[in-house]
UniProtKB/TrEMBL annotation:
<dbReference type="GO" id="GO:0005737">
    <property type="term" value="C:cytoplasm"/>
</dbReference>
<dbReference type="InterPro" id="IPR029033">
    <property type="entry name" value="His_PPase_superfam"/>
</dbReference>
<protein>
    <submittedName>
        <fullName>Histidine phosphatase family protein</fullName>
    </submittedName>
</protein>
<dbReference type="InterPro" id="IPR013078">
    <property type="entry name" value="His_Pase_superF_clade-1"/>
</dbReference>
<dbReference type="InterPro" id="IPR050275">
    <property type="entry name" value="PGM_Phosphatase"/>
</dbReference>
<dbReference type="Pfam" id="PF00300">
    <property type="entry name" value="His_Phos_1"/>
</dbReference>
<dbReference type="GO" id="GO:0016791">
    <property type="term" value="F:phosphatase activity"/>
</dbReference>
Length: 207
C-alpha cells in the first residue's frame, strides 16, 4: 500500500511597497494590511486540513504570511533558506510594469541578454534544484499527511513548470501564482500524480 501526501506551496501575501521597487531578497519589506488579511483568509481555509509540517522562506513577508496558519494549525514555523526568493540584479530598482524607461535603458540591456537562464538572476535550473529538494524533504517528513511551505512567486512557478515537464523560461506576466495562492503537489508514495492550484484569498486580490 502506498500513501498519499500533499505538499502545498503558499505564495506570500501582498507587500507594502509604495515605491514599486523589485524587493527580491532585500530586508524590511513587510505585508500590507491587505496582505495580512490575505494571510488570515488562507489560515481559515486550511485550518481543518491534515497539515503536519509548516516551513517558510526566511523573508519577512513569508514569515508574516505563515504566522496565522501556524496559529490555526498549532504548528511551529520552520525557516528554510531553500524556499527564499530568487536572486535578481535589479533588487531595489523601480521595475513596475508601467516603468517603460527602465526596460528601455541601454544600461540594463546586458542583463536581458539571455531570458532562458535568466541572465538577470539565479538560474532557473538552480531554483528547480533547491525547490525540489525542499519539497522532497517536506514530503518525507509529512508522509501520509500534508505540508505547507511558504515561498515566493518565481520559485513556485518554476518548480511547477519543471514538475509539468514544461520549459522553464517564460513570460512573467503569465505566471499562475497569485498572492496567497496555493500550488499543491499530490504524491502517491514518492510519485507525483497531480498538481493543483487554488486562490483562497481571491476576494482580496486587486486588479
Amino acid at each position: 500500500m502506498t500513501e498519499t501526501t500533499v505538499v502545498h506551496l503558499l505564495r506570500h501575501g501582498e507587500v507594502y511597497n509604495p515605491t514599486g521597487v523589485l524587493y527580491g531578497r532585500l530586508p524590511g519589506f513587510h505585508l500590507s494590511d491587505n496582505g495580512r488579511a490575505m494571510a488570515d483568509m488562507v489560515a481559515k481555509s486550511i485550518a481543518s486540513r491534515d497539515i503536519v509540517t509548516l516551513w517558510s522562506s526566511p523573508m519577512e513577508r513569508a514569515q508574516e504570511t505563515a504566522a496565522p496558519s501556524a496559529e490555526a494549525l498549532k504548528l511551529p514555523v520552520v525557516l528554510d533558506d531553500r524556499l527564499t526568493e530568487a536572486t535578481n540584479v535589479f533588487e531595489g530598482k523601480p521595475v513596475a510594469n508601467d516603468n517603460r524607461a527602465f526596460f528601455r535603458d541601454p544600461r540594463n540591456f546586458w542583463h536581458f541578454r539571455d531570458p532562458r537562464r535568466p541572465s538577470w538572476g539565479e538560474a532557473y535550473r538552480d531554483v528547480v534544484a533547491r525547490m525540489k529538494s525542499v519539497i522532497d524533504d517536506a514530503r518525507a517528513e509529512s508522509r501520509g499527511h500534508e505540508a505547507l511551505l511558504v515561498s515566493h512567486q518565481l520559485p513556485i512557478w518554476i518548480i511547477r513548470l519543471a514538475a509539468e515537464s514544461k520549459r522553464l523560461w517564460h513570460d512573467p506576466r503569465r505566471r499562475q501564482a497569485s498572492l496567497c495562492s496555493l500550488t499543491s503537489f499530490t504524491f502517491d508514495g514518492d510519485r507525483l500524480i497531480s498538481v493543483g492550484y487554488s486562490e483562497p484569498a481571491a476576494a482580496l486580490l486587486k486588479n
